[in-house]
Specification:
Keywords: Kinase, Serine/threonine-protein kinase, Transferase
Domain Histidine kinase/HSP90-like ATPase: 33-132
GO molecular function: protein serine/threonine kinase activity
Order of helices and strands: EHHEEHHEEH
InterPro entries: Anti-sigma-factor_SerPK, HATPase_C_sf, HATPase_dom
Structural class: alpha+beta
Strand order of the largest sheet: 1-2-3-5-4
Protein name: Histidine kinase/HSP90-like ATPase domain-containing protein
Distance between the termini: 13 Å
Radius of gyration: 15 Å
Number of domains: 1
Largest sheet: 5 strands, antiparallel
CATH superfamily: Histidine kinase-like ATPase, C-terminal domain
CATH class: Alpha Beta
Number of strands: 5
Helix content: 40-55%
Number of helices: 5
Length: 140
């Protein structure tokens, strides 16, 4: 698998993306818990696209850095952008009232997150890394 891209415009697109991403993560050797984390992150990010920007894309690809292998999910839209992205990323992962935003939930579920935002558009990239033991057992 090089890259797979999904258009996000409506709820059916989210369901399709979730299903495909679950299969991709399973085929890479992610355990069931990490598969659920990845799929939930796709849901949160795709719902943000629909809610704040009406449409966008999700691109999924395998990444290899040194001896690490992971799954990168890149979500792009052309909406109004996120007004205080640095503030959002500096917030504790769980707010004092126990509630979290979609981005905060994704931060808790994935290993790496990077957000770029402009007045017209946002790009969120997240990565979930395979556990070292999974790679050593030949499932890489």
């Amino acid at each position: 698998m090089d890259k797979t891209t999904f258009q996000i415009k409506e709820e059916e697109n989210i369901v399709h993306a979730r299903s495909e991403v679950r299969e991709i993560s399973r085929s890479l050797g992610f355990d069931e818990l990490d598969q659920a984390r990845i799929v939930q992150s796709v849901s949160e990010l795709a719902r943000n696209v629909i809610q704040y920007a009406s449409e966008g894309t999700i691109t999924v690809e395998v990444v290899v850095v040194a001896d690490r292998k992971g799954l990168r999910i890149k979500v792009e839209d052309f909406g109004p952008g996120i007004p205080n992205v640095q503030e959002l990323l500096m917030e504790p992962k769980r707010k004092h009232n126990g509630e979290t935003s979609g981005i905060q939930q994704v931060r808790m579920l994935m290993d790496d997150i990077n957000i770029k935002t402009l007045e017209e558009g946002t790009c969120v990239e997240v990565i979930k890394w395979l556990k070292t033991s999974t790679m050593l057992n030949g499932k890489s």
